[in-house]
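Handoff note, outgoing to incoming analyst
You'll be picking up this chain. Sequence as last confirmed:
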Amino acid sequence: MRGIVSAIRHSISGEELYTIIGENPAVGSSDRVLKLYDAVEFNLDGHSREGHARIVVDSIEEGDKSAYSKEIERLVGENLSKELLKTNIKQFDSVIESMQEGMLAAEKRIIRSALSGSPIVVRFHNDGDGSSGAIALFRSLSKLQGTMQGKSVNISYRINKSIAYYASSLWNDKLFFNSFESAERPLVVIVDFGTSEQSIEAIEGADGIDLVWVDHHPIPKEFPLGKISIYINPRLHGGGSDQTAGAIACVLAYSLTKQSAKEAQGLQELAYISMISDHSAFAPKVQEAAEKALVLDHITSKKLRYEDVNEPSLT
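Most recent structure output, in case you need it:
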């Protein structure tokens, strides 16, 4: 197998985890020290003492970023879905269609980080709206990374109790990012919160970090949209709070990889849960989705870990 080293995660144990992209992408520890962009011939042979796939390197050639860029563009093209998730709610779908330029940019940016092993933090508001969007992203990103041999370790999901992205949260995210060397800049994906003056300090302090922001709340005049890599809000496209952020994140998640009919139906249900939870005027009257919205609101209000939110009964 042949590939390009696109990310390195350093661990306290001293074991380096390498992400290698190519026809047979892999994540694991290596029997040889590798550098970012190295072109390697390799095989997989068992697991390390930490339980990660063991990469056995046959040859190394010093690479460059241009070869990586070409390969990651190929992978984005292979995985990006050309279809658009439909909720069959006209007032929602029509606004989403007008947001496609920003949505497409966000989808491509997230896929690049997910497949290259570059670090991602997904932060979501602790209610049924924000968490339904996070679950949608979790499902699609897990499927996207499922094609890789070895377990990816580059995505962290963090529930956010406040309405702002504070500098303290940015500091915590940077601690996670500091463990990586990666071809892509670190990425923070924010769902359903943060469009407020209290987030300005964090936004201005996010040098070297890309922000993909999905929200539906009012935008203050002082809010620095120009400093956010990709900002998605229906208010910029004739919509408002009734086009909920979680439902928008479901549409975004749908396009991150090819989805089966059953998977698409599940993402559509999560969009309904988002609208019901946030009392959108467009929320459909679907009893099962309403029951799940009630449960999800209760669970997330307790500020539990994301693993607790992602229970089989809800997904």
